[in-house]
Amino acid sequence: MTDGLLKVAIVGCGNISRRHAEAYASTGRTELVATADPVDGKARKLADGYGATPYANVTELLAAEDPDLVSVTTPPGSHAGIAIEILAAGKSVLLEKPPVLSLAELDTVAKAEQDSAGSVYVVFQHRHGSGGLRAADLLGRGALGRPLVAVCETLWFRPRSYFDPEWRGTWIGEGGGPTLGHGIHQIDLLLHLLGPWRTITATAVRLDRPVEFEDVSLASVTFESGAVATVINSLLSPRELSRIRIDTTGGTLEVNHVYGYSDQDWTFHPAPDAATAAALGLDPGVRKANGAESKEPAAADPWSASAGDDLPSNHEAQLGHLVDDLLSGRPHETTLAATRPTMEFVTALYASAITGKPVDRADLTPGHPFYQALHGETPKDQLSRSFRPT
Ligand SMILES: NC(=O)c1ccc[n+]([C@@H]2O[C@H](COP(=O)([O-])OP(=O)(O)OC[C@H]3O[C@@H](n4cnc5c(N)ncnc54)[C@H](O)[C@@H]3O)[C@@H](O)[C@H]2O)c1
After folding, report:
1. Quick check: CB of 131 below 6 Å from ligand 1?
2. What is the phi/psi pair of residue 163, to 5°?
3. Which residues form the Gfo/Idh/MocA-like oxidoreductase N-terminal domain (predicted)?
């Protein structure tokens, strides 16, 4: 750290790296010192706008520079190895999602973190918008009631050409389909809001895209709190949507967006008072007769009352929080350890879909067949059969 500035570097100079560079710059409290990418010209192109020095790889970067924090924005299959190298140099790491490709990799990186002066953080920007922060706080305090039923949807569209880069569509490069690579954003937010999950029963199918894994997955989930949820992740959905809806004893909390939400994308519909609720339970014809359904929910509710500054859930939000936390010596909450339940969830979803059996979170120990890899080292023909729609 020099002059109160956090020295940052970026490894992997593709699409999302620019968002990291811009988000760091927007804090006004960082200095981008270096970039690295093996593809000719990519590191330089990113570095040039920020006065940073380009390198061909993370090893050369770490040998020459002394960053406080390194963003890893490479394809997912390379995250663990690069993170371990950065940690071995005593630096902190910000891993893009998905942080790693398996629980085994996660635990190896966690071990390297224990032995390092550095820490590992993960990009899950939807935890960091003002709506997500309010939702986590209010649900955590019980102010919105007890969660009962939730729906978590990632209905996105990726054409066949999306899978042209050679790392896409493969277990080795991408690590998994929309469950790991796309739905993981909403899954992470759902788990962040609802707390520990307990069991998953899932299906995953490959309907259209040229991939080794699923292009759609569906899961039904139970939580330790007793709440239940359904989760769907699709890359086949032309009208795109990202949605989490949580029905609690106090009302319905919902966020409806695509790649990032603002406050206006969140709604809370309070549960009706006892008389209205009783009328709502009646036959619709009777309801019309007594007019009870026309009663509007009360204007002032805990959700509306908590409104403040609108912070959209983008890279600026999370990287801004991270830089503030690191510069002020506060712990930053979106650590590798804090995101383990999300990787456990993804692991269990694949395990359940591939084996056809429910999976308990408690089963996911190092001896579990899906601990080492999300495909559970299942033979190729069997794997192919498990993703075939029946
Ligand atoms: N948080 C989000 O909303 C979000 C959005 C998009 C992508 N991502 C994630 O960001 C990561 C990168 O995605 P992308 O779309 O930018 O991919 P990309 O293919 O556009 O860029 C990856 C870059 O990494 C470089 N690279 C590959 N191996 C490397 C290595 N060993 N060392 C240094 N550089 C290396 C490639 O040359 C390429 O320039 C992925 O993990 C992806 O899931 C996150």
Report:
1. no
2. -90, 10
3. 6-120
**Residue 73 CB–ligand 1 contact under 6 Å:** yes
Q: Within a 13 Å sphere around the CA of 310, how many CA atoms are in the beta-carbon half? A: 9
Strand partners, 253: 246, 268
Domains by residue range for the chain, with CATH: 6-126+314-335 (3.40.50.720), 143-275+341-384 (3.30.360.10)
| Residue 339 structure tokens | 């995101």
Contact 23, 319 (CB under 8 A): yes
Angle formed by the axes of helices 340-355 and 103-114, nearest 10°: 160
- Count CB-CB contacts under 10 A for residue 113: 20
The C-alpha atoms of residue 50 and residue 48 are separated, in whole angstroms, by 5
Written as one letter, the residue type at 119 is S
Total residues belonging to the chain = 390
Q: Which residue has the tokens 């009360």?
A: 298
Please tell me the distance from the alpha carbon of residue 78 to that of residue 172, in angstroms, as a whole number.
Answer: 9
Is a pLDDT exceeding 60 seen at residue 237? yes
> Quick one: which atom of ligand 1 is closest to the CA of 78?
31
Place of tokens 């549960």: 271
Whole-number Å distance between alpha carbons of 48 and 51: 5
For 131-178, how does the pLDDT look when each residue is reduced to its tens digit (9 = 90+)? 999 999 999 999 999 999 999 999 999 999 999 998 899 998 899 999
9 C-alpha to center of ligand 1: Å?
Answer: 14
